[in-house]
Predict the structure.
Amino acid sequence: MHSFHKKQFLPHIYSTKHFFIKRWIFLLILIPYIVWSFLTYKDFGITVDEPIEYGFGEMLYNRNFGRDPLLLKDFAYEGKDSREIWAYNHFHTMLLYIFNDTGSIENYHLLNLLFFSLSLYVAYELVFQFSRNSKLSLLGPIILLLTPRLIGDIPANVKDPVFSTYYLFGLLAIVLAPKIKNNFIRLIFLGVSFGLAASMRILGYGLLFVYLVLKLIDIFHKRDEAPLKKILNLGFELTIIFSFSLLVHAIQMPFVASNPTMHLLRLMEVSKDYPWRGPMLYLGQVVQAGQLPWHYPLVWSAVITPLFILFFGLIGIFRFSSNKVGRILALSLLVNYALYYLIKPNIYDGVRHLLFTLAIMSVLAAITWTDFWIKRKKLRKWLLLSFVINVFLVGHQFLKLHPYEYIYFNEFVSYLPGAYNKFETDYWGASYLEASKWLLEKRGNRGGVVALCGKTHAGRYFNGSKFRIVLLPNCDISEKDDLNYIFSYGKNNEWTRFKEKEIYSVSRQGVPLVKIFEL
């Protein structure tokens, strides 16, 4: 009888057991985060894009499972005035709708918060793949949670944080891919991972460039083997990866499935030149989207990122070759900023379209800090001090800004008060919830006509009340003579148009976010 070891007989069980033994400590972050999500998900107001995004998710559900003949065509082909339907991926919001078919905005916020748990795990795993230390790896999700601009967007921004999660997962796939011995399975894993990001935003295909540059660096670094053969093999690999990425994209977007080649090119064209050309406040001046100065994303990133992340993140970029995981993250930042300046897409509302770069920078900062902790033992007390100071400073801002963490500014501009009248603050309009609660509490018995400056979503707050809601396009009240109250928020200082009596304002750190006027 042949003898055998039980680990050979049950290899998958033992590998799974080993996996969880090494990572159970992640629960120390995950459980408090989930508890916090359930405690706070009702705090967050509806943002500008939410109702229409969730509506499209419900429409896609009806298309896929209700076989509505009109929707079958609308999602798959370019139609007049239907760009929001065919040009954007609504698969994620369709999945959310399956778990929230009542359409409750509050429940959507909870689902968004819970989905971000995946980002926290990916951050943990990225640091763990570098350090192989489960305790030190907790720094990854902790620093990610201490990125106010990212965390503040999670509940009510159903696009940018989701893309950030998938993009981080794509970077983790690059890190893990060499551990997969079967070449075909490895390429499928990369293709599916890249496809999840690419289907959310076309910029996700940039992961292919990251992978390409990384492999080319490896090829030319190892000069003992013929590079031409490796380059040809790399071309074959990229073709397979791209094919599976496109397959995932087609499964999620009917527009891509109906004509993969031509419609993918069309999506690239659309993503570069989004039609919105509204005004924005930047460095105290009003600038137009589509005509931004070259330093716009750099300055915004510099003033909204905690100094701890900026310091260690930039060191991580300059120490490009210090470790493989850090090199992949640094390379992804360089590639994406290179693509931005090469393609010059239309961005607006701060750096919400580049929000995923803040997540990458946060994890890179955690890896750099961990690298120093491991290799520079004499610096440990200073490293610990920097971490504690960062927790205190950012945590203090969280307490002051909640539930509007996405309006955070750092010490470079003296926090939110220093950024007032220089940068956009509550461009999402989430503070209308707090203002509406005040009016309902103080004047609910009286009722009246409430005018909203362009924020149609805020009308939901008054459902079932004695108030009647009217909309003010461009905040123009010249043809409205029956108004009792006006809601106006701080985007481009819209409230300066009104001379009426201000009766209430939602403020943080002395900075108004939305004002209520009484006529």
In short: The chain has two domains: 11-273+284-405, 432-518. The chain has 24 helices and seven strands. Residues 1-14 have pLDDT under 50 and may be disordered.
